[in-house]
Structure formats: C-alpha cells, structure tokens
Write a structure and sequence with these properties.
The complex is a heterodimer.
Chain A (H helix, E strand, L loop, with lengths): L3 H14 L10 E6 L2 H6 L1 H15 L4 E6 L11 E4 L6 E3 L4 H13 L9 H5 L1
Parallel strand pairs in A: 1-2
Antiparallel strand pairs in A: 1-3, 3-4
Helix pairs in contact in A: 3-4
Chain B lengths: L3 H14 L4 E9 L4 E8 L6 H6 L16 H10 L4 E7 L3 E9 L11 H11 L4 E8 L2 E6 H8 L7 H27 L1
Parallel strand pairs in B: 1-5
Antiparallel strand pairs in B: 1-2, 2-4, 3-4, 5-6
Helix pairs in contact in B: 1-4, 4-6
Chain lengths: ~120, ~190
Amino acid sequence: MKSLAELQALRDKMKGNMGVRHDDTGNIRVVVGMATCGIAAGARPVLQAFTEEIAKRGLKNVTVAQTGCIGICQYEPVVEVTVPGKEKVTYVKMNPEKAVKVVVDHLVNGKVVTEYTIGAVKK
Amino acid sequence: MQELSLNLLDVAENSVRAGAGLIEILVEETPSSDLLALEIKDDGCGMSQEQAQRVTDPFYTTRTTRKVGLGVPFLKMAAQLTGGDLSIESQPGKGTRMRAWFGYSHIDRMPLGDVAGTVTTLIQCNPQVEFRYTYRWENKEFVLDTREVRQTLDGVPIQSPEVITFLGEMIRENMEELRETEREETRQ
C-alpha cells in the first residue's frame, strides 16, 4: 500500500531527473473550469485525464490549473490551453477521451484539435 | 451531480474562493449508525449570519455570471431526502464549517463516488492552500495532510502530475484498506 515513505522514493526519482522546474512562466497552461456548472458537467474526470496523461508522458512543461465560472455554462466542461506566444484555445464539452487527444495532438505535437474548440461547436 | 464527492468538491471550491489557507475535509462512513457525513471546515473570510442563512437559498449567490447559486441548496435537499440535513456555521474573518449528513442505507442516498479524485483535484489546482483530508470508516481513520506531504517532497512541487497521481492512488488504497479491515473483523 502506498505511503509517505514510498512518496520519498518518487521525490528522489523526480529530483534525479532534474525535470522539476520551479519557474513555470514558460509553461503551457491547461486551465479547467471548476465552478458548480463545470463540476456538474464532468470537469473533474477531465482534469484527472489531463493529469494522468501528462504524468504518463512525463511532460515537464505543462501547468494544470483551474478557474471559476466563465459564463458559458452550456459548453462545460470548458478547458483553455495557452501555449506561450500563441493565442489561447478554448475547448468545450470536453470528456476524458477528448482530453487525451488534446494532450497528444496539442500539447505534444502543437496541433490544435479544431473540432473540439468553441468555434467549431458554435457553428 | 450524481456523486457526493462532486458536491464535496463544489463546496470546498467555495472555501478556496473564500481565501482559505487551510481546508479540512472529513468524510465519515458509519454503517453501524446508518450515517454518512461530509464536513468542510476552512479558515477563509467567513460570512455574516445573514449571508450564512442565505447560502441555502438557490436564488442567492455572490457570483456575477449568473443569478442562481445551486451547489449548496441541492446538497441540502439531497441530505434531507435521506433523513439527514445540512448545517453551516460561519464567522466573518474566522472561517466556515459546513456539515451534511445522510441516511447511509437510504435508497435515495447518492453514492460517495471518487473522493480521492476530489481531494487530488483540490490539491493540484490550489497549491497555495493546505488540505487535511480525514476519512473515517466506523472508528478507524486515514489522514492525508498536505503539510506533511510537502515536508516529504522537500521542494518537489506538490501539484506535479506524478505526485498528484501518486496521492490519488494512496488515498484510494488506504480508504479501501480501512473498509476491508472492518469487514474482516465483522466476519470473525
């Protein structure tokens, strides 16, 4: 069973990899809407899917964060992805499967998944 | 919301927005007394007595994007439907304590759901806040305190996806272990 002692081993491994960065200003930001509307629509499993996929792929340059209600409750779960130097992309009606695709296509390969964006859904 | 753990996340997010530095979450499952309780206690900005009374009014909210605040009223309704209720104690400048309790075996009681997912989501998204999560099954307890976790991590960010995934598994395994031990003792 996992314990704090085992967490020490993970810490040592992470320190050893030198992948830990304390300055995350140059990071890609993934922001999930976590107000009542987002949570009710399934934001938590979406956030978990992002986290697991990012951990699995060992991506070091991504920060996952949350925001409140941004007023488009009908499109929740909403996820905003900001790559430094590029325009913010708003993904809507997300689910864990779509989250995995966004990690692979957008975060890893730099290709926006247009079909999940608010622009595509609104049309 | 189909899971109590999602309600827990929703209410704890209110504590985050109240500027809390420490949020204490308690989940109590006591089948022997037919009780399931959730408690969230924070040291945030608190509310006046009048505000605290209006929290359970669906047409009261402090947010500006909509005119309704449905999180707490629905949770109160869900609790009352199972013979339980919801209470809020708050003091401006001191913090807020909310407790919701349910009839454990009531057919209308929502499943608890993924509490580990709720706790890790809170930790990951709010690295500036400390969390103390206590899970109580009958008279046995498991506690996860982010202050202890941070000490162990020695500078490695707590919100790192690897750490969050680890903490989620740790919470799940320990909760399951408590339930199993109790079941085995009952059998003997």
